[in-house]
Each structure stands twice: as C-alpha cells, then as structure tokens.
Design a protein that fits this description.
It is built from 19 helices and 11 strands. The protein is of the alpha/beta class and about 375 residues long. The chain binds iron/sulfur cluster.
C-alpha cells in the first residue's frame, strides 16, 4: 500500500472522525444515505458502521445502476438479442431478470450476448462484425454517461447502436426526499459522479434544506464526508460540502459535460423499484437517431408494461433506504449471489450482494 493510500486508511484518523461525529450528534439521532455501491463497499469492507456512534444510521440508496435499470429495458435488450443482433453489455447486466428472462437465458437459447468492459469494447465488436448489428446496452449514471457520449460523438461504425438506460443522480435525490416512507437527514454524494458533474447540480437541493457532502472512496474520505453532513444537519446549516477536493471541482469536468450535452437530452425516466422520476434520464439527442437502438429497431412501439421487481424481492425498499438487505425474507436463504432473485444481489454494486459477501467473510459480525 502506498504511503498516501495508507493515510486515507489510517485507523487513528478514522477513529478520530467517528468520535467527532459522536460529539456532533450529542445524543441526537441521524439517518444519512449514501448513493453509491462503491461507498457501500468501503463501508462494509472496513466495517465502518461498527465504529459509527449510537444513533447514527448510514443507509444505502439507489446507487447501483444495474439495480435501478427497469425490467422493460432488459426486455428490449433480450428482444434484440433474440432477433439476431450482437448484444453487448456489462457482466452484471447479463443476469438481471426482465419480464421475459434475462440476457443470460437468451444466450443459453443461442443469442449472441457479449460481455464488454466499456463502450469502447462494444464499438470494437462492431468493427470486428461489420456485417451484423451490434447493440450496446448503455446502463449507468453520469460517471459512465460521459464515456457513452464520447463514443456517440466519435463517429462509430454504422452497424453500432445504443440501447440507453442512463440515469441521473440529482433528480433521484430530490425525488427521494419527497417520497412517502423515506426519512433522511442528508446525503453522502458519490465522488465519481461529482467528479464528472461537479457540485452545482446539487446546490439547489442544499438551498432547499438538504445537508450533503461529496466523499471519495477510502475510509477517511467517507468519514470526513459523513462528519460534514452531520455537522450541517446538527447546526441546521445545509450546504453542499466537498470532502473529495483532490478530484471534485464545483463546476465538474467541462469536457465531459460538453460531450454529454452534445450527445444527450434529458427526459423523464423509470427507476426499477422506485418509479418514474422527472428529468432523471438521458437519451440520444435528435440528429443521433441512427445510433438510437429504440428508434432503429422500432422498440418504443413494442414496449410492454414494466414487470417491476421479481416476486418476493424487496429491492425497491433497499434502494430507497427503507429496508436493509437482511430485512428481506429471501436474503441469504432463497436469494444468494450463487442463486440471486433480485438485481441488488446480482450486481457487484448491489447492497444485498455486498452485505452477503462481507457477512460471509465475517460470519455476520
Ligand atoms: Fe431482492 Fe434478494 Fe435483496 Fe431480497 S435479498 S431484496 S430478493 S436482491
């Protein structure tokens, strides 16, 4: 481990920050949501919840793009794969069930489903298979949307198209605060999303009274961010603080933002387990129609109702911070990483999968 990284994992600093949060709380109760599977990994891997003071609850939110990808988008991808296209996407997406099977089941039936590590891999597939349609299921948040934009604007081969399932974090956080049954005192913002879009899109939420801070992904980063959110909530001075100054700028990454604005337009979008959120999705803008798989293959006309979560799965509650994975009756019994029922157990960024992996390692302690 590098000297610099060791500093961000210093037990002495982490314990000091946890004690600081305890002093800020001074007997209050506080409930903060993070919105990032990578944050959940850090929190679980380093057992950070075990050192947080009594009364301070850190819950997972909708920070897993695979988990919130609506079943209807999976259904459209499955339909294209069964229809003869080469369907490229990330590994986690292949196992996520739609209303009519998954890409994995389509592949077992003979469909050509390929796993790629990035949109660049999908473009490369299109170059290698010039005689076939190659469709990339483009799922993700702002962090990956900028790479999709760069690919769309780079003149990809004519047999390449995208089935977009891109979601935006700020409108989701706004909607969650208004959602019945959701009770939160603030947000820990995802460092990679904020590296792209900056803090400005979150500032209207802070101005409306929601405490928040962006944090990186080492234990000290997370605790620093939580201390800032706790301070704001305790003193009634909501703001949008930056605990990830080594990467996040208030205005974000200008090149990435320009590419996204050139490639996409904002529209209302469905989040699996949550519902439709106004202005929370990106779709290819007019002028880029040939790249849009829905238009190219007439999918919008065929769209069926979304099938939601699999029967018995509580991912909707987990994604909105209303339940912990272990609250689900299927957790670690009928639903495991080897035999997952819902997207939160399938995705490496899903709260149920992360909880299960670290429960196994620690015996649930
Ligand atoms: Fe869904 Fe499985 Fe998580 Fe339950 S444990 S909420 S079934 S993914």
């Amino acid at each position: 481990m590098s000297v610099e990284l060791a500093g961000y994992r210093s037990g002495r600093i982490v314990q000091g920050l946890a004690a600081r949060i305890g002093r800020i709380l001074s007997g209050r109760r506080m409930r903060i949501m993070h919105v990032c599977g990578t944050h959940e990994h850090t929190v679980s891997r380093h057992a950070l919840r075990s050192i947080l003071p009594d009364g301070f609850e850190l819950v997972s939110g909708p920070g897993c793009p695979v988990c919130v990808c609506p079943a209807v988008d999976i259904d459209q991808a499955v339909r294209l794969a069964r229809g003869g296209a080469v369907l490229a996407t990330f590994g986690d997406m292949v196992r996520v069930p739609g209303g009519d099977g998954s890409l994995e089941t389509a592949r077992a039936e003979g469909a050509d489903v390929r796993i790629v590590g990035s949109v660049t891999g999908a473009v490369r597939l299109a170059l290698e298979h010039a005689d076939r349609d190659v469709v990339f299921l483009a799922c993700g948040f702002e962090t990956t949307a900028c790479t999709y934009a760069a690919a769309a604007l780079s003149g990809p081969p004519s047999n390449f198209s995208m089935l977009t399932s891109i979601r935006l974090i700020p409108p989701a956080l706004d909607a969650l605060m208004r959602m019945e049954g959701v009770s939160l005192d603030g947000y820990l913002l995802p460092g990679h999303v904020c590296t792209v879009i900056g803090l400005e899109p979150f500032e209207p939420l802070a101005a409306r009274g929601i405490p928040m801070a962006v944090a990186g992904f080492e234990p000290v980063d997370v605790l620093q961010g939580l201390a800032l959110v706790a301070e704001q909530a305790a003193t009634g001075s909501p703001a949008c603080d930056n605990a990830y100054g080594r990467l996040v700028r208030r205005g974000g990454n200008a090149v990435a933002l320009e590419a996204m604005a050139s490639a996409f337009v904002v529209e209302d979008a469905s989040w699996r387990g949550i519902g439709t959120i106004a202005g929370s999705g990106l779709v290819l803008r007019p002028g880029l129609e040939p790249l849009d798989a829905r238009r190219r293959f007439g999918l919008d006309e065929e769209t069926r109702p979304d099938s939601g979560m699999p029967a018995g799965c509580s991912c909707g509650l987990v994604l909105t911070g209303q339940a912990a994975p272990s609250d689900c009756d299927l957790y670690a019994t009928a639903c495991t990483p080897a035999d997952p029922k819902g997207p939160c157990m399938i995705s490496n960024e899903g709260a149920c999968r992360i909880a299960h992996v670290f429960d196994e390692q620690t015996g649930g302690r």
